[in-house]
Amino acid sequence: MVLMKKYEILKKRALASNVNEYVIYAPLVAKHCLAGQFVILIVEPDGERVPFTICDYSRSEGTVSILVQEIGYTTAKLAMLNVGDALQDFVGPLGNPTDLSEYKNVVLVGGGIGSAVIYPQAKQLKRDGKAVDVIVGARNESLLMYVDEFKANSDNLYLITDDGSNGRKGFVTDMLKSLVESGKQYDCVFAVGPLPMMRAVCNLTKELGIHTIVSMNSMMVDGTGMCGCCRLTVDGKTKYACIDGPEFDGHAVDFDEAILRSKIYKEQEQAHLCNLRGTYGKN
Ligand SMILES: Cc1cc2nc3c(=O)[nH]c(=O)nc-3n(C[C@H](O)[C@H](O)[C@H](O)COP(=O)(O)OP(=O)(O)OC[C@H]3O[C@@H](n4cnc5c(N)ncnc54)[C@H](O)[C@@H]3O)c2cc1C
Ligand code: FES
Predict the structure, then answer these.
(1) Which domains are delineated in the chain?
(2) Closest residue by CA, ligand 2 atom 2
(3) Is the pLDDT of residue 157 over 90?
């Protein structure tokens, strides 16, 4: 019998430039997690706590999959690990599972790394025998993820890239607008991606009168509602993405505030990354 280390990386696969999928041995998380929830992991002793969506899991194998975009210090440290290495900590499942059961015609809209969040939703809707269309957008072809998996788990898959290198040229909002104008009827849009993209989708769906759910990727520390780091304003009230979300009614989210808060530590994040790459003070 092969004995697995706690939080061992069992598989690592490059899915796009600077994006890796990791399959982690974490039986207790795998036993309880559901689509829409996330984990907080620590890469090394004294490392920072960073949240990632659970994009797949196997209860029988005790594994949880995450899709990670290398964007700063901790994700760069994670990218240096390989199969056989183990994470320092891996806590979850956190947040509330998604409930799309009341909707009949859902369109999932994923921008960039947002594919990690909409993929388990597509699988769940398919399992429930619901109609599901998927729009996946990225800056270019090399950043499109899970194309085959979405084909297998949707009724229609629409690809769109900023530069037209795969699928239609344009933004996810262009695709959604033309689908609705062509007669498609959706009772729910589930949109996940960078904050400006989710705001643009919500502005459009407000005009179109379609209920919209977004998954907020606010900065997090404890993930238990204690530190206040992930605070948002939703419908004029204070909410915490980690315990009240991460999903919210997109038309009620104050995106301007969320975007402002997401930039608070930009300078420190840059210095941190430069220290890792040995380029601090050199540019
Ligand atoms: C609920 C949730 C789910 C997420 N799911 C995914 C996912 O599936 N795949 C993925 O690649 N990314 C996901 N993220 C974002 C991911 O947590 C950040 O990219 C990561 O923390 C960046 O850390 P860093 O040190 O590499 O970068 P840094 O240089 O520290 O930060 C880069 C940017 O990442 C964001 N960020 C930094 N620290 C945190 C933090 N502690 N919590 C949240 N955001 C932070 C900020 O916007 C920051 O500007 C998710 C975030 C949340 C809140
Ligand atoms: S992460 Fe601390 S309150 Fe949400």
Answers:
(1) 9-94 (2.40.30.10), 105-262 (3.40.50.80)
(2) 227
(3) yes
